[in-house]
Write a structure and sequence with these properties.
Layout: H1 2-20, H2 26-33, H3 37-61, H4 67-87, H5 91-102, H6 105-119, H7 125-153, H8 156-177, H9 189-192, H10 199-219, H11 222-229, H12 237-258, H13 264-285, H14 289-305, H15 307-316, H16 322-349, H17 358-390
Helix pairs in contact: 1-6, 1-7, 1-8, 2-3, 3-5, 3-6, 3-16, 4-5, 4-6, 4-8, 6-7, 6-16, 7-8, 7-12, 10-13, 10-14, 10-15, 10-16, 10-17, 12-14, 13-14, 13-15, 13-17, 15-16, 16-17
Length: 391
């Protein structure tokens, strides 16, 4: 099982580099292709739209093929999408490359989780899935800073060529280490959608979308923010991206560590509050280098501290349609990426300075926290109603 987990972690490492790697080379991409930085930021949105399109399609079609064959197809799409993006010079082709590379993202997590649930010993499934997800957090700690250095030293194209080459190696690891299994759900397709009739999963989807949008409205433009607002030279961006990646790793670990003491709802809502405060402090004190690093670290830690509790809440509210729930969570997460990048870039398009990207970011994160509080209020009312009925 360890080799299978490692292979899937390599896959999420490649996905993490593709999704987050563009933040560190955004200005190089814009200058090389002759587009504005907000327009370059749209490449983040195109990747997210690919996830939105791909996740539900693959969730519904995965039962027709073995899980291993599905994973091979998804990783092949990663190779193709990043290769198209690497060698493109026109805006439409760049957008197509990002769209294709985003298509397999959500489905990879869903298929990988199902596969691990079939081979992991009882009580070890959560740990195995966490091992798979760890690849993405390590990508932010090592892969994204490496991509940032390559983009600054040579060209942003080297960054994405490296990602395509790495994904080609992931194909080999899947061939060697992933067993051939099938997911034959006994639940009819129409019944898998039944959980969507309740408002609870929609509130979790909303919290996932707005929570990610809030962080991405700022993080999508972290390089120009750190350079033009905080006053760092571009030379320090590799180290800054490593610091933000470390925040993501530690946020994920911390969230998992306290999950036994506090409910998933409490962890997620508190984390969103911390993110809102950190974004407002970035706006107020972003010109101070130490403050911008500390608040940026906290914000990035919060992004991945949200991941596990939100997934738990989705599983709790998607009985009978767990795969669709997981796919919906990835759709919401990456739709949030697109929304965040758009609203952050809109502030620059309207003529505001780079520090103003934190204001729509804070507002979006507040919307995420509000969704969770509404969810908690609704669950509390249902619990009370059930208690009254039994009394």
């Amino acid at each position: 099982m360890k080799k299978t987990v490692f292979s899937l972690a390599l896959g999420t490492f490649g996905l993490g580099m593709a999704e987050f790697g563009i933040m560190g080379v955004l200005t190089e991409l814009a200058h090389d292709t002759g587009i504005s930085i907000p327009a370059a930021g749209n490449m983040i949105s195109f990747y997210a739209f690919g996830v939105v399109i791909g996740a539900p399609i693959m969730a519904l079609c995965s039962s027709k093929f073995s899980l291993k064959s599905t994973l091979l197809f998804l990783v092949a799409l990663c190779v193709a999408g990043n290769a198209i993006f690497t060698f493109s010079h026109s805006y439409p082709m760049l957008a197509l490359g990002r769209l294709v590379s985003g298509f397999p993202h959500g489905a990879f997590f869903g298929v990988g989780a199902i596969l691990l649930s079939k081979i992991a010993p009882p009580g070890k499934v959560t740990m195995a899935v966490a091992g798979m997800i760890a690849g993405m957090t390590v990508a932010n700690l090592i892969g994204v800073p490496l991509g940032t250095w390559l983009g600054q030293t040579y060209s942003w194209r080297y960054t994405f060529f490296l990602i395509a080459a790495f994904d080609a190696l992931v194909i080999l690891s899947v061939l060697l280490w992933v067993p051939t299994l099938y997911d034959k759900s006994e639940t009819r397709l129409t019944e898998q959608f039944r959980f969507l009739k309740k408002p609870e999963p929609w509130l979790i989807f909303s919290a996932t979308m707005f929570g990610n949008a809030g962080v991405f409205a700022w993080f999508s433009f972290i390089k120009p923010f750190m350079v033009h607002v905080s006053g760092f030279s571009e030379f320090f961006m590799t180290a800054i991206m490593m610091l933000m990646g470390l925040g993501m790793v530690l946020g994920n670990l911390f969230s998992g560590r306290i999950s036994g003491r506090y409910s998933a709802l409490r962890i997620a809502a508190t984390t969103d509050l911390v993110i809102v405060l950190s974004l407002l402090l970035l706006f107020a004190f972003g010109e101070n280098k130490s403050a911008s690093l500390v608040m940026g670290f906290v914000c990035c830690a919060g992004l991945f501290a949200l991941s596990a509790p939100l997934q738990i809440l989705l599983l709790q509210n998607a009985k009978g349609g767990e795969l669709l729930g997981a796919a919906g969570g990835q759709v919401a997460f990456n739709l949030g990426s697109a929304i965040g990048a758009y609203f952050g870039g809109m502030m620059i398009t309207l003529g505001y300075s780079w520090d103003y990207v934190t204001l729509p970011a804070a507002l979006l994160s507040f919307a995420a926290m509000s969704s969770l509080l509404m969810y908690g209020h609704l669950k509390g009312k249902r619990k009370q109603a059930n208690a009254d009925a039994l009394a």
